[in-house]
Amino acid sequence: MAQRPVLALTTGEPAGIGPELALAAARDWQGLEADVVAIGDPAMLTERAALLGWPVEIETVDPGEPLPPRRDGHLPVWPVALKRPASPGRLDPANARYVLDTLDLAVEACRSQRASAMVTAPLHKGAIIDGGFAGFTGHTEYLRDACGVDEVVMMLATARTGHPLRVALATTHLPLSRVAEAITVDSLLRVTTILARELRERFGIASPRLLVCGLNPHAGEDGHLGREEVEVIEPALARLRAAGLDVVGPLPADTLFTPRHLDTADAVLAMYHDQGLPVLKYAGFGQAANITLGLGLVRTSVDHGTALDLAGTGRADAGSLRVALDVAVDMTRRAH
What we know:
Layout: E1 6-10, H1 18-27, E2 35-40, H2 42-52, E3 57-60, E4 74-79, H3 96-111, E5 117-120, H4 125-130, H5 139-147, E6 153-158, E7 166-169, H6 179-182, H7 185-203, E8 209-213, H8 228-242, E9 246-251, H9 253-256, H10 259-262, E10 267-270, H11 273-284, E11 288-293, E12 299-301, H12 319-335
Parallel strand pairs: 1-2, 1-5, 2-4, 3-4, 5-12, 7-10, 8-9, 8-10
Antiparallel strand pairs: 6-7, 6-11, 11-12
C-alpha cells in the first residue's frame, strides 16, 4: 500500500446523497492525510457530477492496480455496476444488491490490505429489505456478519476538539419492545470489553473511563421502576470492575449527559439506540462519525441518512463525511 492510508469509500444508496458526498469530497482533498478510492458505478457518478455542474473527473481503477496520484477534482473509483439506472430521490429496490456489493468489495479490500479502512456513505434500509433482503437491519450488523465476528459495537463520536463526545450502544437496531430482553450480563460484558479495548487500541486512551446508562427512568430507582439495573446491569459492571475496567453506573440517562459527568468520561454506553444518539446528534449533528468497533478492521461512516429530498441538489452537507474520513485516518495510524 502507499505510505498514506487508502480509504475505501462506498457511495451508498444511489438515489440518495451518498454519490454527491463522494463527489463533494473529491472537489477539495486539502488537509486529508489519506488517499481515497470510491466504490460505486462510475457512469452514475459521472452523471451525478454533470447534473450538479461539478467538474469532478471520474477515473475507473481496477482494485488490483495502484491508485493514481491524488489531486483535487479527481475521484478514482473501483467499479461496481448498478442493477438499474438510478435517479436522485427515487428509490429502486432492484439496486439493493448493488449497494451490498459495494460493501463486500470494501470489506475484501480491507482484509486483503489493499485498503487501510472503509468509510461508508448512507444506505436505505427499506430499499435493501424491499430488494429481497428481509433480514437486513443495517450497516453495522451486515458488516459484523461479513467480517465473521460474533459481536460488534456501534459508537458515534463528535469531532469537537478537546473532549469529543463518544456514545456507544449496548443494542443497535432493535424495536423498543425487544430491548430489555436483549440486554444480558453476558452481552454487556462483551460489548463493554470491546468498547474499552478499541478505545485503547484505536483511540490511544490508555485507561478509558466509561459511563453506563441505566435502562429504566432514574436507573430503575433501586428496583422500583424496573429490575434490569439490579439484576443485569449492576452485576455486569461489578464483573467488569473486577477485571480492571473503569466503569461507572448504572446512571440515569437524563442526568448522565451533563457536563459534570461527561467532562470526566471517555465514552458513554447507552442501552439502546434512541437513548444515546439523540443527545449526541443534538450536540454535533453533521460533525460526527459513526464507528463500528470489533470488526477487525477500521470502519467509519456518516452520522446521517440518505436525505432523498436533498439528492441531486448539491445542498447536502459533506461535513460528517469529512469527519468520518479523518477519524478513519486516525484509527488506522493507531492500529499500526
